[in-house]
Amino acid sequence: MTQLSRRGFLAAAGTVSVGALTACGSNSSGSSSDAVELTVMAWADAGQAERYEQEFATFTEKNPDIAVSLEWMDVGSYQDKLNTLFAAGDPPDVMFMVGRWLGEYATRGVLADLSGSDQLDFSTMNSGLLLQGQYQGAQYAVPTGSTAIAMIYNTRIVADAGLELPDDRTWTWADYAEFNAEIYDATGVHGAGFYVPWLPTITQYTRQHGQDLFTTDGTLGVSAETITEYFQLITDMRSTGAFAPPGSLEDNGTSVEQSPLGRDFIASQIIPSNTFGDYNSVMGGDLVLRRLPGETEGPRPGYTVTPTLLWCQAEASEHPEQAARLIDFLTNDPDSFAARSTLLGVPINAEVAEQVSTGLDEDAQEFVDFTVALQEEELAPYEMEPAGAGEVQNILVSLSTEVEFERMSPQQAGEEFMSQAGAALEDAG
């Protein structure tokens, strides 16, 4: 196993999304009876929640005047619950956020601007990643770590098909479609199956075409033709068995064991690369990380290295200093990574990243190597999601379903996307 060099790991300290599985719970770290209590809301499965609890227990040992209560749930119910709490005027003090929601919540005025906090040491953090926690010049979020999306393949199924994985640095989307069809013809297992409307995948596909899904002024930068081509690719793959059939895939937080990948219904999937270890441990070590196709066939590569998730603080928090102190601990204290390691991405503090690099298991090392290799390349600047990006995601979900069940053609979906998404961004603007 190739170990990451000190220079390489420090380069990575500046580049993921946690795998969300079904479950829900609430627990509180112990502290003195007169301690201030912070609430933290996150999506996780039971195992991940336990790791976060260990971090919070360490925090309260170092800060006995603060207790931390964690509420965790599956990703499918997370935003609805968060919106309900904000509407009721009782939001969590600290919470998970994703980039496509940041502008929306910042525009509402419900997130705290952290830039003036004397509890956070921003000087230790990767400046490029910190920019991706900003909206209109204010620092509303701190990245949990860095990552990039990746393809995972089940090597056992590929071997059963009598095939070898293509070179992922040069393969095209046509190569990808053909390879997955060959897997299906040889084994009856659909070669591919991923969440079609996922913004990171569509963003990368768009960038490969020399476009940006969103522009710097918060409008659409993609063409109807590119969106049409994306939906047509999936439609054509379904027709050959290369892609899982309609109704067989849902982004609903199913556990890895129960997922189409875990049941050998599909041979590959697109994931946040930081979750590779969670998948591979369940799959018995049969998985490998690969780059997405299409990186060399268009005007430019589509890859970008982004925050895995974001830590945000509620503007309405009654304990803003303590909440900011917790975020600083989760970012700048090596002890906060003892339980989660690289689960939430490569640490954005270079010194912490160097310490975390010691003793990584093989899967975590593979993720870090994957991320570092991307970060060392010249990638086009990444345009952050504007206010309204969350609604654009919802529009993609709806249109993808219409195409999936043949109620709409890919061309119609492309045209509808431009109309509906453009209006959503204008309304949010």
Structure description:
It is a single chain. With 429 residues, the chain is α+β, with helices and mostly antiparallel strands. The protein has 2 domains: 36-145 and 307-375, Periplasmic binding protein-like II (D-Maltodextrin-Binding Protein, domain 2), CATH 3.40.190; 149-303 and 387-428, D-Maltodextrin-Binding Protein, domain 2, CATH 3.40.190. The protein is 41% helix and 14% strand. Helix 9 crosses helix 15 (410-428), helix 10 (276-282) runs antiparallel to helix 13 (362-375) and helix 14 (389-404) packs antiparallel against helix 15 (410-428). It is globular. The termini are far apart. The relative contact order is 0.20. Residues 1-23 have low confidence and may be disordered. Pfam families: SBP_bac_1 (PF01547).
Offer a concise description of the structure.
The chain has 429 residues and is an alpha+beta fold. Helix content is 41%, strand content 14%. The chain folds into two domains: 179 residues, Periplasmic binding protein-like II (D-Maltodextrin-Binding Protein, domain 2); 197 residues, 3-Layer(aba) Sandwich (D-Maltodextrin-Binding Protein, domain 2).
Sheet with the most strands, sense and barrel status? 6 strands, mixed
Number of domains: 2
Assembly state (oligomeric): single chain
Please state the structural category: alpha+beta
Strand content: 5-15%
Low-pLDDT segments, ≥5 res = 1-23
| Averaged pLDDT | 91
How many helices? 15
N-to-C SSE series?
Answer: HEEHEHEHHEEEEEHHHEEHEHEEEHHHHH
CATH fourth-tier homologous superfamily of the largest domain: Periplasmic binding protein-like II
Distance between the termini: 48 Å
How is the CATH topology of the largest domain named? Answer: D-Maltodextrin-Binding Protein, domain 2
Mass-distribution shape = globular
The beta-strand count equals: 15
CATH class of the largest domain: Alpha Beta
Helix content: 40-55%
Placed side by side, the strands forming the largest sheet appear as 1-3-2-4-15-7
From the 3D coordinates, which CATH architecture of the largest domain would you assign?
A: 3-Layer(aba) Sandwich
**What is the C-alpha radius of gyration, as a whole number of Å?**
21 Å
